[in-house]
Amino acid sequence: MKLEGTNTLAAPVETVWKTINDPEALRRCTPGLKELKEVAPDTYEATLVIGVAAVKGSYTGKLAITDKRAPTHYIISLEGSGGPGFMKGQGSVDLEPQGEGTLLRWTGDIQIGGLIAGVGQRMLGGVGKMLIGQFFKCLEQTLGGGGQGPGGNR
Amino acid sequence: MKPAPFEYVAPRSVEETVRLLGEHGADAKILAGGQSLVPLMNMRLARPSVIVDINRLPALDYITPGPGVLRVGALCRQRTAETSPVVAAQCPLLRDALRLMGHEQIRNRGTIGGSIAHADPSAELTAVLAALGGDVSVQGPGGTRVIAASDLFVTYLTTSLEAHELLTEVRFPALPPGAGWSWMEIARRHGDFALVGVGVVLAPRGGVISEARIALTGVGPAPVRAAEAERLLAGRAPSEGLWDEAGTVVRASLEPEGDIHASPEYRKHVAGVLTSRALREALTRVGETH
Amino acid sequence: MSGHRKVLSPMSTRYMGARIPRNEDPRLLQGRGLFVDDVRLPGMLHAALLRSPHAHARIRRIDVSRARAAPGVAAVYTHADLGPLGGPLPKLIPHPALVHHKTQYALAPDTVRYAGEPVAFVVAESRYAAEDVLDLITVDYDPLPVAATLEEATAAGAPLVHDDIGTNVAAHYTQRVGNVEQAFGAAPHRFRERLVIDRGASCPMETRGVVASWDPRTDRLEVWDSTQAPIPIRNGLAAMFGLLQQNVRVVAPDVGGGFGPKIMMFYPEEILVPLAAMRLGRPVKWIEDRRENFVATNQEREQIHDAEIAVDADGRILGVRTVFLYDAGAYIPYGLIVPIVAGTTLPGPYRIPHYHCEFAAVFTNKTTVSPYRGAGRPHGVFVMERLLDRVARELGLERTEVRRRNLIQPDEFPYDVGLVYQDNAPLRYDSGNYPACLDRALELIRYAEWPARQRAFRSQGRYLGLGVACYVEGTGIGPYEGCRITVEPSGKVCVATGVGTQGQGHMTSFAQIVADALGVTPRDVSVHTGDTGLFSWGTGTFASRAAVVAGNAVALAAQAVREKARVVAARLLEAPTAEIELSEGRVFVRGVPARSLSLGDVALAANPLRFAMPPEWDGPGLEAIRYFTPAQGTFSNGVHACVVEVDPDTGMLTVHQYLVVHDCGRVINPLILDGQIHGGVAQGLGGVFWEKLAYDAQAQPLSTTFMDYLVPTAAEVPSFEIEHVETPSPLNPLGVKGAGEAGVIPVAAAVAQAIEDALAPFGVRITEMPLSPNRLRQLLAEVRRTP
Predict the structure, then answer these.
(1) Closest listed residue to residue A3, CA positions, set A139, A124, A142, A145
(2) What is the pLDDT of residues C649-659, one digit of tens each?
(3) Which of A135-139, B61-65, B101-105, B246-250 bottoms out in mean pLDDT, i.e. has the lowest?
(4) CA quadruple C457, C458, C461, C463: dihedral positive or negative?
(5) Spatial CA neighbour of A87 closest among A117, A65, A119, A120
């Protein structure tokens, strides 16, 4: 499942960069994140409970930030496994100044395997997109909101 | 395919139910007809630690016609509503939608309140409630509150009910006098979740449409009210061209997701087709209700 | 059923051909069937499997310590615990062209190659507890690149499903008739198509299941298995566990649908469950749940054909060529049966002087493929019929006329196609009347009136289309089946045969054969199948063969028992053997019904307690064992015709009419035969418009529930019309041919033609199956022209 989108944030690039590298902000904004433990610089052990309403699965895994080109680009990857199978996602984040604020472009490629993929396909795309939307909305709120560009299947 | 361990309680009153929900919060799940919940539990997609079985609350099983509104208890079985003469008289749109909802065996167990509270993005009842502009009563520890359909459906499987609240009643406004209606949907097989469904109410006055109501299911995270098309139709004289125009407006307003059965393009296209067809059918029924 | 039938044996045919209700139905309809899940033994444990969520991954580490310590757990096995059973599972059907005969392991040792491959096996006090424990096993996977599709798997540099063989091609095989290059070179017209058929699942009502019980005092292993092949399973278990075959009993009790995937052996669970029962000293049960069935039971159908036909100006076939890819899935235990059947079914009822059929069997990271009802036949027919439709369109010929011009004529039998069939015997059609079937089908569907009817519908804005397709079905292959018939002193007749029953009505059709021979009613005949304790020789129920191979063994054994009864009765009634007759449960002297004995009394007398036995009795009792060993298969045929409607605005399909004219030689029971055809057509229609196993780009299965894998219901399929033409087979005493797969074979071909006919104003071309409303809308959008 490939997704992409843009968000406009009401903060300069440097501030946005700091926020998206801040474990506390990641902890607060990643939907369903229960635990985030830094095990090495930019590498975290994560526990997530992901899903919607009562349909949730618990995953443990790793969150890592790589390919850093401060203050405009990184790759964030997340992988986890649990009772419902596994999830694996990778996304790129690019920042560019836009007036006083920042334009954030993101792309994501998510793989879901096991139970959820086999029985939940009807809502998987929509829910995945919704959760990513929640992440960026939270960032917007953290940084002082701007407009949100549409995300979409590519 | 066996559920994870859970505790089971069967309260005998609404008050007891609300108290139990307050105690267990998000760990509890209400069991009504069980037609969505039990498969979810068997597949371990849902692992509630407490099941609150409300099937021993007969007080929630009723259909009461009222002036201009049909009050349906949350525990009323879908099949009961489908075959009720009161529903047929006051709200034939609800009856017609129920007929396409799963299979008869499912409707024998499934409840009106359960379907609304489960808020499946392809459900018929959520769209019917949205089209009619109905509302629901919910009871929590602090008392009862009313939530309008427009505020109820948040996103996939999510309503604005709090974890400790119990949905007790669903109110479907009766069709305006003389109004026509239509429920249409495309499902892969009879009884499957709709790829797209549309409910339409058409109220005429003096040769023009005084009010049109259109809501769709299967084309978003929650039922979609086609407000723009409704505005387009109001005050216009019915015509084939108008139906096509409304279909085009609906099509353009949607951003559905795709799945293995239907792409976003398919859903958009068919939403337009069904809207036009449903309006055409609704017009043929104008004058049937009173 | 009426009409004259040639009597092939001196038996009366009172029940053969009769439309009588099934012996097994009262028991099944009253819920008194015995399916594997109904087997409940004292102290029984329950098993569940941990399956790979990855389509391709290396297993780095499995941690079962928490699982083993959990309450209610009797055992947790991984590959490391399998001991001598840790090797690859048996290779079923070898073939010289199958150079990489890869089979899976009971539990994956180090690599998983499809989502659903078993990784760990848990035995606990209940299935609930066993499933709880699955959550406590941690597997550390290292995901590997995935070959998800045939195209990906055959591309240069493709991820390798089995890295030790350096290729994803398990086999490459070619069969030829005549000189295709020359025929194509000289042909005035050549047409080429790429035809694609996607994956489907057989979805038996009863999923797989195994119960095993071990008695250490007698060294006896008893296994109940929802299988189509109890005897080969018994033989394999005895070999693997070092037991006497005599001490292993495998029972396939009532089986709720087989459809081919249950002929596969061994599935991992068929080894793991007996292993656990023997190690733990307690009975163990495993029942496959529906979600497992969608990943762990073999699937079928996926092939891509690049096919070409050469014809003369009149549409006469000069040559056909197909080069195709066959998706084997992750392993290929069942060998090349499906692609060989596809290639050898393709010629069908048509004269094809030059034919080239070539395929590559390809590994992908998906569930293993083995035969599912049709087993390649629907593919072959789809390709051939699509090519003929193309010829008709391109040359402006009437579509049924193109077929008629190429049909093999009734006086051409036996007709040698020139190929080698799946049983390694020459593909030689024994009998048939193909033009008669086509004529009758066209008459029943009112073909002559169709253009006018279609115009009338179109004038109402409705798009209806008609389709007609022909096929030949190879059935009744060897090597053998056998039967033992015993008359009991009560006069009841017991029949035991090795072929199992999965709904084919053997308890009735075999009883009819016996009833005619012994002069009793089918209700007096008790047929026992699928229990190695009752009959221990046989291969299984597959490839539309039971009625032919076991049915004729039954007929031979019944004839032998009849002769024995006459010999015994001759002595008792003091009359010449030649004058003894059997009828109405009695044995009597011809013309003197008063001089008679009941059949039971004859059976009793044939088993004396004292005194010498007449030498001509050749042993005690009224009992005989006989085998039928056909040298080659027998070939059924038929024509399907249908009328469908497409809504171009929604892509929805309605099947208004579906009829089948069918010839499987002599009919034993038309009621049962109709049922076989009904089920087959329904499954065929499923594969046309509803049933598709969806996988994502990482080979994750996306349709593992009946919410997403859409088996058509009574609301989607019409009432079928069926008519039987009877051209007896000269190859067996009963004159019968198989019918198990007939219903499914030409459905895709017939409906594809009907949809093209319906959408002719738009010019839509159908080159793939299955379709869907979404896909039809896409095809319409691609060719959008104003009608």
Answers:
(1) A124
(2) 999 999 999 99
(3) A135-139
(4) positive
(5) A117
Q: Which amino acid is at B196?
A: V
Residue C715 and residue B44: Cβ atoms within 8 Å?
Answer: no
From chain B, the residues in CB contact with C690 under 8 A are: 188-189
Total beta-carbon pairs less than 8 A apart between chain A and chain B: 59
Q: From CA C414, how far away is CA A1, in angstroms rounded?
A: 56
Instruction: Give CA angle at B272 (B270, B277), nearest 5°.
Output: 90
For chain B, list residues whose CB is within 8 angstroms of any CB belonging to chain C. 1-5, 43-44, 186, 188-193, 195, 260-263, 265-266, 269-270, 273-274
Please list the residues that pair with C326 across neighbouring strands.
Answer: C303, C361
* Model pTM score: 0.95
Confidence tier at A84 by pLDDT (50, 70, 90)? confident
- Residue C785 confidence (pLDDT): 54
- B162: tokens are 């709090």
For residues A111 and C503, what is the distance between their CA atoms, to the nearest angstrom?
A: 41
Q: What is the DSSP string of C244-273?
A: -GGGEEEE--S-S--TTGGG----THHHHH
The enclosing H or E element of C60 equals strand C57-63
List chains adjacent to chain C, taking adjacency as at least 3 C-beta pairs closer than 8 Å: A, B
* Residues C397, C261: Cα–Cα separation, whole Å: 41
DSSP of C175-219 = EEES-HHHHHHH-SEEEEEEEEE--B----SS--EEEEEEETTTT
Please provide residue C40's backbone torsions phi and psi, each rounded to the nearest 5 degrees: -125, 115
- Cα distances from A127 to residues A132, C596, C743, in angstroms, run 9, 80, 41
Nearest chain C Cα distance for residue B191, angstroms: 9
Q: Which amino acid is at C97?
A: A
CA distance A10 to chain B (A): 27
- C268-294: pLDDT as tens digits: 999 999 999 999 999 999 999 999 999
- In this complex, is the C-beta atom of A117 within 8 Å of any C-beta atom belonging to chain C? yes
Beta strands A85-98; A73-82: pairing state: antiparallel
Residues 6+ apart with CB under 8 A from C691: C200, C201, C203, C709, C710, C711, C712, C770
Look at chain B and count its residues: 290
Among residues C97, C69, C28, C736, which one has the least CA distance to residue C358? Answer: C97
**ipTM of this complex:** 0.96
Structure tokens at C728: 């007896």
CB atoms within 10 A of CB A29: 20
Report d(CA C151, CA C362) in Å as an integer.
10
Minimal-distance CA residue of chain B relative to A51? B45
